[in-house]
Amino acid sequence: MPTWKPIQKTVHQDARWQPYTDYQFAKNDTTAPLLMAEMANALPFYPMGFVKTPKDEFQLVAVQSLQPNLNLFVNAQGKWRVPYVPSVYRGYPFKMLKAETNDSILCVDTESKLFLPEEKGDKGQPLFAEQGELSEPMQKVVDFLQQCEQNRQATQQAVTALNKAELITPWSIQTRTSENTEKPVKGLYKIDEASLKKLPGETLEKLSQSNALAVAYSQLLSMPRLKGLSQLYKLHETEQQKINPREVDLDQLFGEDDDDSLKF
Known about the structure:
Order of helices and strands: EHEEHEEEEEEHEEEEHHHHH
Number of strands: 13
Helix content: 25-40%
Mean pLDDT: 88
Radius of gyration: 20 Å
Largest sheet: 3 strands, antiparallel
Oligomer: single chain
Distance between the termini: 26 Å
Strand order of the largest sheet: 1-7-6
Low-confidence stretches: 251-259
């Protein structure tokens, strides 16, 4: 489990960090928070849905598995299987979190092996430059995380508007167990398309102005991507059996992308 602690110049002046080279840190994530800014990039690859947060709010997510503690998009070598990686992972081991003052502060996962709090040599990148300001590589990460945080707030406003319009409903999904019995997937929600079609024009206009309507239709359009998860399950099972993975044309399944790690 990550342990997020605020970055402090007085404490971390000499600390260093290493950019991630794989996504093992995400291998147990069934869902990933998703931003409006990345919906178009995520749509070809991921089923989108909603989950409830500990604050009892709905949150837009990419569905990465229907099985707890499993991320089908991370292979046995820790590489991401499809071209687009959700933005929530691309600032790791750093993250912007809310302080008690409601300000966003830069935090680091102190349990991560990528964080080097007492590194005395030249390993990794310094957090701070000699004059005490953030180093150039670190500033690029912070800029990206701040963009994500700004869009996260806009995304949450849109999702809240959908909830107020009573458009978010439980998503009925059945999975088949190894005993060939069906098991319901709990905790996922989707847009109620029938209710969406019945909304009056005034409500639809308000949802459109807040970009909530775009979130609703993106979620609906992404639902067929659930079929792609079945191919990923087969790949995962093959890897678990320690057999050479069966060749599957992921480009044919999901398309292509030339993602830059610090862009949406």
